[in-house]
Design brief:
The chain has a five-stranded parallel sheet with strand order 2-3-1-4-5, with helices on both faces. The protein is α/β, with parallel strands linked by helices and about 200 residues long. The protein is globular and about 50 Å long.
Amino acid sequence: MTQKLIVGLTGGIGSGKTAASDYFASLGIVVVDADIVAREVVEPDQPAWQAIVDRFGEEALLPDRSLNRPWLRDKVFADPAIRRWLEQQTHPRIRERLEDQLAKASSDYAILVSPLLFESGQDALVSRTLVIDVPVEIQLQRACARDSNNEAQIRNIIAAQMPREARLERADDVVDNSGTLASLTEQLMPLHQHYLQRANQ
């Protein structure tokens, strides 16, 4: 890894991580998205995909041979042992790709967006952490509206993520996104300037 300033951007489900990373991207900052990389490592015939098929059989696949994500997600959140096994298949491969993409980032600093930044140990790849924070009630409201998931599913996802208080304790920077998009960008603007200054010291 180079000495480039890398900011790890995280937050619970429905907190507005994408809105925040889109803002940084609009300013020309390279954004590396762990969710996108996580999807890439389980594309058909990739080693992690093969391991999942070997363990669960055809039931884990859709007709186009891509993973049946809702089915797999139900399995993972119902059984911590399955979640741990799946993480062992995917996390090292995700990390390798993230390191490669971050090393190639051409902007003054780079953003690593990861919903499991702390849980997965990906915070070791960054020099600073930014948490996009909202109360749990807003997480539920936004995530249910966006993903057409039921409330029980969203609560399971929230329960599997690091508790809000623990995430805030580990953050270098915190932005409250319980208001409007304009309010979010108002808070991100000075952070962008701060990161530019740090990156060019």
